[in-house]
């Protein structure tokens, strides 16, 4: 379980393509300072298991094909910057919201509107994700816990729905969202409570 509060910007320093998986080596001195084999670290919002930790402040993780298909991790290459967060511990502050590290779909940055004190980013999302997103609700974008500031739909199609997030300078400086240009794919995770409510309603109607 995570909170969506990014601890540091990491960097992909190794990438190996396997038959039905990939192996990434990620540089992140902060998240590896106390990491051990088997620990969980969120990489751009995807919960990965630490396989090895190096003395140089990097860790290695294996990513199965299912995860590569359902997230943007398959597009990572050496030099890519990534958002990193260690799993939350009992008793720690919940600065964001409860995040599982299980991607529900990928979105795409469609516009950036900077102003003096913040930047509004609009992200297109698939219909399968849109039904769980509400204005002023929580959403995780590439592992960052954010509040939805606007919702809309442009035209017909699976990615016609969009939502907006308003990013403060700290988020722009300390996460990949500050560098995400128009067209950039992003990992999306909706609030898990919405999915449980839907499931309960479905079962009640049967």
What would the keywords be for this entry?
single chain, 206 residues, mainly beta, 6-stranded antiparallel β-barrel, 6-stranded antiparallel beta barrel, 4 helices
What does the model show?
By secondary structure, the protein is mostly beta strands. The chain has a six-stranded antiparallel β-barrel with strand order 1-2-5-4-3-6. It has a six-stranded antiparallel beta barrel with strand order 7-8-11-10-9-12. The protein has four helices and twelve strands. The model has no long low-confidence stretch (mean pLDDT 92). The chain has helices spanning 65-70, 127-130, 169-174, 192-205; strands at residues 8-17, 21-27, 40-43, 46-53, 58-64, 81-86, 105-114, 119-125, 138-141, 144-153, 161-167, 185-190. The longest helix is centred in the C-terminal third of the chain and has 14 residues, at 192-205.
Q: Report the sheet-strand fraction.
A: 35-45%
DSSP strand count: 12
CA-based shape: globular
**What string gives the helices and strands in order?**
EEEEEHEEEHEEEHEH
- Structural class comes to mainly beta
Report on the biggest sheet.
6 strands, antiparallel, barrel
Instruction: Let me know the average pLDDT.
Output: 92
What is the radius of gyration computed over CA atoms, rounded to a whole number of angstroms?
A: 17 Å
How many helices?
4
N→C terminal distance: 31 Å
Widest β-sheet, arrangement of strands: 1-2-5-4-3-6
Helix fraction by DSSP (H/I, runs of at least 4): 10-25%
Unreliable residue stretches: none
Chart the SSEs and their pairings.
Elements: E1 8-17, E2 21-27, E3 40-43, E4 46-53, E5 58-64, H1 65-70, E6 81-86, E7 105-114, E8 119-125, H2 127-130, E9 138-141, E10 144-153, E11 161-167, H3 169-174, E12 185-190, H4 192-205
Antiparallel strand pairs: 1-2, 1-6, 2-5, 3-4, 3-6, 4-5, 7-8, 7-12, 8-11, 9-10, 9-12, 10-11
């Amino acid at each position: 379980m995570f909170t969506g509060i990014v601890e540091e910007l990491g960097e992909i320093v190794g990438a190996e393509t396997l038959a039905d998986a990939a192996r990434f080596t990620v540089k992140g001195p902060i998240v590896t300072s106390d990491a051990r084999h088997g620990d969980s670290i969120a990489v751009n919002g995807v919960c990965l298991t630490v396989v090895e930790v190096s003395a140089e402040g990097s860790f290695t993780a294996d990513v199965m094909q299912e995860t590569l298909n359902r997230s943007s991790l398959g597009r990572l290459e050496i030099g890519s910057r990534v958002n990193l967060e260690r799993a939350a511990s009992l008793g720690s502050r919940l600065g964001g919201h409860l995040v599982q590290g299980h991607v529900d779909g990928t979105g795409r940055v469609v516009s950036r509107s900077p102003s003096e004190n913040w930047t509004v980013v609009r992200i297109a999302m698939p219909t399968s994700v849109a039904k769980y997103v509400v204005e002023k609700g929580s959403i995780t974008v590439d592992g960052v816990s954010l509040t939805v500031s606007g919702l809309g739909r442009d035209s017909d199609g699976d990615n016609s729905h969009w939502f907006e997030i308003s990013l403060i300078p700290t988020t722009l400086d300390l996460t990949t969202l500050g560098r995400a240009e128009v067209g950039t794919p992003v990992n999306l995770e909706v609030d898990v409570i919405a999915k449980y409510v839907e499931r309960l309603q479905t079962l009640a109607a049967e």
